[in-house]
Design brief:
By secondary structure, the protein is an alpha+beta fold. It contains 13 helices and 7 strands. A 5-stranded mixed β-sheet has the order 2-4-5-7-6. The chain is elongated.
Length: about 425
């Protein structure tokens, strides 16, 4: 099986386009089939014929072996066009010579096969027309002139040889059409996949511009307006201090939005590499809660860290830090004054499960399917905090890229629990 697959993939490399790789695979398949059919014909001429054929006839009928071997060598050395040219230039006249010496007019069926190959392997107009004229000429010679030119002393036509040629010729045509159809289907599928990927990337582009033009522009415009008013009013230090919380809040919102936008854009690039190592969930949770402590305190929301000190996972630290920051930030956003946000962690077989639980307002059942949809669902927090709708999508993508999964459960009026799994560091 490995030998067969190796022969089918001769000369196929990443330098070729997907279509060229498929075309090369079909060419190798046909070359291999031609090799097998030639060996079967030689075996019949040598061993199965009622009357032994002269050595010259056997040698002439063995010429396709040399051509197949040369074409395989061209494929190995990646002379793809040379291999195709050799096939169309030499095989048709060799078939004519074989038919002349063996008296086997059934070989003309392979010329019909080459008529099919013209439209799959050749693409330039002059190549198609030249190959068509060449093959038609060989067919006319084989079909009309050879019977006249054959000497009566030559071996008679054997029905067994014609049966072999017609049977394997039809089988060859079926196999060739199957491979052509299958490879064309795969090529069309790849085109459809590329089209879907382009649509997805176009949606990404539209969302980036939407965030930049609205969600990012608004807080920056507010900061500019606030600073302009402060500059024109000639505020005292005490009056300036009153504006500082709003200014700081706008800056933090802008910074968080930029972080999320960059993280989300990176998560959409499939080739982005992750630096996975053993990381401490306890340490990351402590850093996250410390970072969000001021936000939680301003809403009178209690942050509770119940992550065991030995809770570790094998993942990319920066991406998991973003996940934790988004999930805890969301929990604070939708938790009213006096509520609690708790982070826990425990081992679950080969995975580590991290849980962020809040006592917030919960998510309405009719809105839950929208959280991970394509519409970038967002809603205002308990203090009218706005969002971009990117946070949860970023969390899902980053967790999945780290080999885990993100789940949630919510009950309106009671709270929401988000949990994500990561590979255990062991």
């Amino acid at each position: 099986m490995n030998l067969f697959l190796g022969l089918l993939n001769l000369g196929i490399s990443d330098e070729l386009t997907p279509y060229e790789r498929r075309r090369a695979k079909v060419f190798n398949s046909c070359n291999l089939a031609g090799l097998v059919i030639t060996l079967l014909r030689l075996s019949y001429l040598w061993l199965g014929s009622a009357k032994p054929y002269p050595g010259m006839v056997l040698a002439i009928n063995g010429l396709p072996l040399l051509i197949c071997g040369f074409m395989a060598t061209c494929m190995i050395w990646r002379y793809y066009q040379t291999a195709i040219a050799v096939s169309f230039i030499f095989f048709p006249p060799v078939l004519v010579v074989m038919a002349f010496f063996s008296g086997d007019g059934a070989l003309e069926i392979f010329l019909f096969l080459y008529m099919l190959f013209i439209f799959f392997f050749l693409h330039r107009r002059w190549q198609i027309l030249s190959a068509f004229v060449w093959i038609v000429g060989c067919f006319l010679v084989m079909h009309f002139w050879l019977p006249v030119l054959r000497s009566p002393d030559m071996p008679p036509v054997e029905a067994g040889l014609s049966v072999i040629d017609y049977s394997f010729g039809l089988l060859f045509i079926f196999i060739a059409l199957y491979f052509i159809k299958f490879e064309v289907w795969k090529f069309e599928k790849s085109i459809r996949d590329k089209k879907e990927e382009l649509k997805r990337l176009n949606a990404v582009k539209d969302k980036v511009f939407s965030v930049i033009s609205h969600d990012l522009r608004s807080p920056i415009a507010s900061i500019i307006l606030l600073l302009r008013e402060m500059n024109n009013a000639g505020l005292t230090y005490e009056e300036f201090s009153e504006f500082l919380p709003n200014l700081l809040g706008n800056m933090e919102q802008t910074s968080e939005l930029l972080d999320n936008l960059l993280a989300w854009a990176r998560s959409q690039i499939k080739e982005t590499a992750l630096n996975a190592n053993s990381i401490s969930i306890a340490r990351l949770t402590q850093q996250t809660l410390k970072f969000l402590d001021r936000t939680a305190s301003s809403k009178n929301v209690l942050l509770v860290n119940e992550v065991p000190a030995d809770c570790c996972a094998f993942a990319d630290e920066s991406s998991i830090s973003i996940v934790l920051r988004n999930l805890v930030g969301n929990a604070i956003k939708f938790t009213p004054s006096g509520g609690t946000v708790t982070v826990t962690c425990h081992a679950a077989g080969e995975y580590v499960k991290v849980i962020v639980e809040d006592t917030g307002v919960g998510i309405p059942p009719n809105k839950q399917p929208l959280l991970f949809g394509e519409g970038y669902y967002t809603s205002l927090g308990t203090n009218k905090e706005a969002g971009s709708g990117l946070g949860l999508l970023i969390c899902r993508d980053l967790v999945e890229q780290n080999g885990g999964s993100l789940l949630f459960a919510s009950e309106q009026g009671i709270g929401t629990t988000f949990s994500f799994s990561l590979p255990n560091h062991n």
